[in-house]
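subagent[fold] <- orchestrator: predict structure for attached chain, return tokens only, no commentary.
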Amino acid sequence: MQSKKQSLLEVCVGTCIGYLTAVATQALVFPLFNIETSHTDDLFIALIFTVVSLIRSYFVRRLFNFVHRQK
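subagent[fold] -> orchestrator:
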């Protein structure tokens, strides 16, 4: 079983990797669609999607936890 500290570390590392992946993906994909943004815009856009992803992940985890307890 994973400790709370290990879980927190996993979430932080995963979130950081996701954020950096989002910024890099935007830098590659946006020009293909002629979307021009500054590097600051890219950082904020990725941050917004990261926060949304964290919220989504939390609710999916809680849903699975609830379903698992019903069995």
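orchestrator: received. Logging for downstream: The chain has a mean pLDDT of 90. The helical segments are 4-29, 39-70.
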